[in-house]
Amino acid sequence: MFRTDFPLFPEQASTLAKEVDSVFLFGLGVAVVFSLLIAALILFFAVRYRRRAEGDVGQPGHAPAVLEIVWSVVPLCILLFMFAWGARVFFHASRPPADAEEFFVVGRQWMWKFQHPEGHREINELHVPVGRPIKLTMTSEDVIHALYIPAFRIKQDVIPGTYTTTWFTATKPGVYKLFCAEYCGAEHSLMSGRIIVQQPQEYEQWLYGAKGQQGMSLTGAQLFDARACNTCHRPDSDARAPYLQGLFGRQVALLGGKTARADEDYLRESILMPASKVVAGYQPIMPTFKGQLTEQDVLELITYIKSLGSAGQAPAGREAAGGAAPGGKGR
Amino acid sequence: MAAHVIPPRVYLTVFTILLVLTAITVWVAFHDFGPLNVVIALAIAGIKSTLVILFFMHVRYSTRVVKITAASGFIFLVILIAFTLADVFTRGKLVVGK
Amino acid sequence: MREPDAHDAHDAHGTAPAGAAVHPPHLAHHFKTLEQQSESVAFGVWLFLATEIMFFGGLIMAYILYRIWYPHDFAAGSHLLDIRMGATNTVVLITSSVTMAMAVWAAQVGRARTQVVYLVLTILLGSTFLGIKAIEYTHKWHEHVVPGPHFAWHGPDAPHVRMFFNLYFTMTGLHALHMIVGIGLVAALIPKCWKGRFGPDYNHPVEGTGLYWHFVDIVWIFLFPLLYLIGRH
Amino acid sequence: MNAHAGSHESAAAAGAAPAAGAAPDYLNDGYGIKSWLLTRDHKRIAILYMFSVTFFFFLGGLMAVLIRLELVTPQGDLVQPDMYNRLFTMHGILMIFFFLIPGIPAVLGNFLIPMMIGAKDLAFPRLNLASWYIFSLGGLFTLWSVLHGGVDTGWTFYTPFSTTFSNTYVVTTALGIFIAGFASIFTGLNFIVTIHRMRAPGLTWFRLPLFVWAHYATSIIQVLGTPVIAVTILMVALERVFHIGVFDPAQGGDPILFQHLFWFYSHPAVYIMILPAMGVVSEIVAAFARKRIFGYRFVAYASVGIAVLGFLVWGHHMFTTGQSAYAATIFSVLSMLVAVPSAVKVFNWTATLYKGSISWETPMLYALGFIGLFTIGGLTGVMLATLGIDIHVHDTYFVVAHFHYIMVGGAIMGYLGGLHYWWPKMTGKLYPAFWSKVSALVIFIGFNLTFFPQFILGYLGMPRRYHSYPPEFQVLNVMSSAGATVLGVGYLIPMIYFTWSLRYGRRCAPNPWGAVGLEWQTASPPITQNFAVEPVVTTEAYDYSAERVRAAQEAGRA
Ligand code: HEA
Ligand code: HEA
Ligand code: CUA
Ligand SMILES: [Cu+2]
Questions:
Q1: Is A87 touching ligand 1 by the criterion CB < 6 Å?
Q2: pTM
Q3: Cα–Cα dist A78/A91, whole Å
């Protein structure tokens, strides 16, 4: 089956796509203009000044410094312009808007696992509503993968042991291809999937149609009990461990005088390798949960901890600004 | 012949300084200077190796290209470390929603 | 190969070209003067050392990164190292550098016996270093911190402490390997020194070997504070 | 650069007349396998290298053929995915580490640098021979791995896939690359010392041919960059064997550290591959336009500028890998800067053609092809360095097209141009002019047909290292595979006529092109000592004045 119709330009289906395409088209323009210019000059000179007699020699030209400066500075200006424009787009692409909904992605050889904030899970397929910013927080269970959605012009490596993020706002309902772009082993080329962009109502329907799902923070809360985290992390004053309410986003004072910001990576590390960053004023008694929790579990726990409020939007009755520790223990 | 012959006296002087510096660096290690500990330790290592390079390795009396070669190894090493750490220190620092 | 030997036979190509009649015996056919030859060798060795700096540099880069990430675990690992042995070894190696420098000096002034004495001293000191290192390694083995199935660490965060020891053994191991090569190079010089081959005109093999030896010393000058002197206070 | 009238003529005369002197040319100075395998003559070592790299090129090319065959259809039907992964990995490794990196320096550079600077040999002839043996040993390790099933990590060896997940011959291949790396270091070291210390009287830095400048710059990278890949690959091997954990996130290691260390070498390494080709092009353009290279000094400085700046941009391979966005920004802007010296070179070559006396000989065709294709490759490189574009095209066929444009369209064109230019010098034989022009044309057409469609594929979003792909990409892939066939034929033609010429080629005059470079002032093929009398240089490089050219031609005809 040989297709004779084939696309020359990829579909644009996110807010970012237009921006990326504009820089690209500019770069392409520069490339075409300069390639043609050089090619034309070479051909013209090679014909015009072709050797006519055996003993002919070229006319030694003197190289004026101005010329050298011009053809260094002009490209330089074009290049810096391209850089600045590209960097703007890139920063836009790297900073999810504050109101983005957070989805979780776990990559593994050779499949993609997605989880909606409401808890619904999908494999190799992701339903999203059109027009709403969506942030993907991603990690991998084995090797490095990369989430690539050409129609959205986004790509981000998914790295074991840490979280990376990317985001998009889809602009057109439809079904778009999803690829793994970082080589990851035998079935790298089969580690693909679909992004299904739906109108918000359709999406809601689909979500509630998906039965038996519960919010991630709820499963997280259950895990928190089931894994006995709550035996230490309690609100009372003789708890052996810091109470986690209002933790997310705050600067945490660590043993040894350093501080760390309580972001996802910090929480993950605190759960899997508790001894590597010990909170000041506590004993390093927390057991490691490495190997006992799946990446999925960790994500759920993190969502739960985040749902306990974060710095800046702390639940009533506690102030984040002063940094006074919950339960009176210094942080 | 890298023509210049350095008299043994110089070697002995350098040797003494190196021993003293070794003693200092060990001494410093047992005292708390906060973050300065690392700085002092590396500074002393830097001075010691400079002495070895200049005198034992005759760079002080060598041609300019040898001087440049000796320096370039360290310079490129610094580039490697500086740029890599520039990434490591700023990773994940992009503030959400700004 | 450490010391790119320009000491090529000059007879390989049959008839020497006219005008090369006064070619000193130690001068390779393609050089014009002994000075050109010995400068080339010193320069070549220096370029090789620049390479070596970058080679160790990759490891040092890894070490610095993880030390910044896991300061406590690295300090905990470092505390297990014997600082007295490390310091002793530093002194031993610096002393060997002096004896090596003296050997080069002896070659420059053409004293054959003195050269041999200093070279032998250098080898002895180098071996002492390796001996002490071997003792340290055995201690580490008994303390179960040699990476591998034998490794056992009873504290929090064994993986990061293991990382310290992995790097410790890789770095000191590679350094020791360089020492062994250095001892071999020095030993290879001794017969020639004994025969009085080296003098004011021709000594670049000794000088080149010396450069290499000092470089190995410099590596240790950095390894010692990096590995042994963390958070001792 | 050249010897001025008086003394160079005596050199030329003495060298040029085979009958006059006692000294046989280097090819006849000893026969038998031993006289080759134990030679210390840089020219013979260059020939040894030529055979080795040609072998690796065709082996790598064979894998490319299989890759392109597999990609004719969207389904993975020719080979298993495992096999496909090994194919592109071995293709990349062989082409980069065993063909292109040693390619021009160890063959053309080795042969020509001593002659261009009027020396009898490189500074360390034994080290030179040793480097060929080291290279061969590295090659054997790699071949051994290929024969036992190969490696499937991609030529980039990204961790933790290469360290904990791949179950192929990573360690032996890594060792092969590690060993071959030292050959590269020793070649570079040898060149630097030679260029500093062995120049003929009167040959100042700014009289050196640009070929020598380019190799000098290349050597800097070889000496300072290669050890880093060596130690990195050593850590990968240690990690596989002893699980030292430095790159293993499960043990607290950082996989991105590997990428930093890898690209710290591998980006500068791309300049190891292109700078020598640029040097070749400078020589050819000057010789066939019969004109001094326009802006000689700027071109010379540009080589060194590229080499040094090239060390500061490696992070542009890691824009989407979780490297910090700030670091990415720095690397992006620095990548832009490194394009400027390349632009300077392209413009100066073009300006050299202006009012030149241009002859359309085969080497010139290759050189002009180089300039055009390198420009396209370089400008797409600049697009990749633009952060906003790279998020979309990273790890797609756009990148594949970019680097083949530079490495196949650029560097190989340069290498072939150089071979055609100096073939008479190296062998004393002429190849058929007609067929060589045909080959240049076939290669140019085949090349563009192969790799141009890949730009489009890349922007459409086809990821690289894909064994199977969505059907809408098929047409472009078929075009690419068809082009690869033409390209393959194009490479076979020179292979055939070069081999043919060794036996049946017409004997050429010492200076068939009427070129004025110092290497043309001696016999073709040269005597073992290169020059019968040491040349003395009194003029600038590329002194293509009418008298000089006439003199050169006359001496050449003698
Ligand atoms: C010989 C090899 C070679 C050379 C010389 C180059 C040269 C350049 N490369 Fe390329 N590159 C590779 C080989 C090479 N590259 C390889 C092998 C890869 C892939 C590795 C892998 O992942 O497997 C790669 C990948 C690669 C990437 C990563 C892409 C990705 O994975 O996402 C980037 C990104 O910045 C890049 C940029 C550049 C730039 C800016 C140059 C510059 O040096 C180019 C400078 C030249 C010019 C700019 C042209 C001449 C200028 C003019 C005619 C003047 C007019 C110019 C302007 C107005 C701008 N290259
Ligand atoms: C110097 C470097 C070099 C060279 C010369 C080439 C040459 C070629 N390369 Fe390669 N290539 C790389 C370096 C190079 N490549 C690298 C570094 C990668 C990345 C690897 C990775 O991802 O890890 C790559 C990847 C790569 C891919 C992407 C694979 C993938 O991502 O899935 C493709 C696909 O088309 C390709 C094609 C080709 C082709 C068609 C040629 C042609 O130019 C080859 C032409 C040569 C021949 C054809 C052989 C000679 C002729 C014969 C043996 C006669 C018989 C053949 C016929 C008559 C057809 N290369
Ligand atoms: Cu997952 Cu590629
Ligand atoms: Cu690059």
A1: no
A2: 0.88
A3: 20
Q: Among A2, A63, A153, select the one facing D391 at the smallest CB separation.
A: A153
- The tokens for D282 are 């400078």
- Say if D447 is an interface residue toward chain B (CB within 8 Å): no
Say how many Å lie between the CA of residue B78 and the centre of ligand 4. 20
Name the nearest CA neighbour of D246 among A274, C167, A142, B81: C167
pLDDT tens digits, one per residue of D85-119: 999 999 999 999 999 999 999 999 999 999 999 99
Percentage of chain C lying above the pLDDT 70 cut: 89
On whether the CB atoms of residues D117 and D110 are closer than 8 A, the answer is: no
Give the rounded distance of the alpha carbon of C7 from its chain centre: 22
Distance D91 CA to ligand 2 centre (A): 6
Distance CA B44, CA A209 (A): 69
The shortest CB-CB distance from B30 to any of C91, C222, C232 is to C232
Around Cβ A238, how many Cβ atoms within 10 Å? 6
Paired tokens of A88 = 């703007």
B88 touches chain A (CB under 8 A): no
Q: Comparing C-alpha atoms, which of D96, D205, D104 is closest to residue D422?
A: D104
Q: What distance in angstroms lies between residue A313's CA and the mean position of ligand 4's atoms?
A: 44
- C102 and C118 in contact (C-beta within 8 Å)? yes
C-alpha D400/C-alpha D18 separation (Å) is: 49
Mutate to test the pocket of ligand 2, among D408, D451, D474 (most ligand atoms within 8 A of CB): D408
| ipTM value | 0.88
Which residue lies with its CA nearest to atom 36 of ligand 2? Answer: D64
Residue C52's pLDDT is 95
Percent helix, strand and coil across chain B, each rounded to 5? 75, 0, 25
Which helix (H) or strand (E) is A176 found in, with range? Answer: strand A174-180
Residue pair D409/A106 in contact by the 8 Å Cβ criterion: no
Rounded Cα distance between A279 and A260, Å, is 9
Set of chain B residues whose Cβ sits within 8 Å of the Cβ of C35: 1, 3
**Residue C91: alpha-carbon gap to chain centroid:** 15
Which subunits count as partners of chain B given 3+ CB pairs below 8 Å? A, C, D
In this structure, the residues whose C-beta lies within 6 A of any atom of ligand 3 are A 107, 110, 145, 180, 182-184, 188, 191
Rounded Cα–Cα distance for residues B76 and D6 (Å): 45
Length of chain C counted residue by residue:
233
Q: Is C40 helix (H, G, I), strand (E, B) or coil?
A: helix
- Nearest residue (by CA) to ligand 2, atom 32, is D465
Cβ–Cβ gap C70/A276 under 8 Å: yes
| Residue with CA at minimum distance from ligand 3 atom 1 | A145
Distance CA D502, CA D419 (A): 13
pLDDT in tens, A16-37: 999 999 999 999 999 999 999 9
Q: Read off the pLDDT of each residue in A279-305 and give the average, rounded to a whole number.
A: 82
Q: Which residue has the tokens 């002092």?
A: B40
Backbone angles phi and psi of A100, in degrees to 5:
-70, 145
Residues of chain C below pLDDT 70: 1-23, 233
Neighbouring chains of A at 3+ CB pairs under 8 Å are B, C, D
Note whether B83 contacts D: Cβ–Cβ < 8 A.
yes
Please tell me the distance between residue D270's alpha carbon and the centre of ligand 1 in angstroms: 8
> Rounded to an integer, what distance in angstroms lies between the CA atom of residue A223 and that of residue A218?
9
Alpha helices, H only, C109-201:
112-142, 158-194
CB neighbour class for A1 (10 Å; exposed up to 12, middle 13-18, buried from 19): exposed
Burial label, A227 (beta-carbon count in 10 A; 0-12, 13-18, 19+): middle
Task: Name which residue leads in pLDDT, A284 or B80.
Answer: B80
Task: Report DSSP state, residue D74.
Answer: S
At A316, the pLDDT band (50, 70, 90 cuts) reads very low
Q: What's the one-letter identity of residue D509?
A: A
Residues of D in contact with C57 (CB under 8 A): 227-228, 231
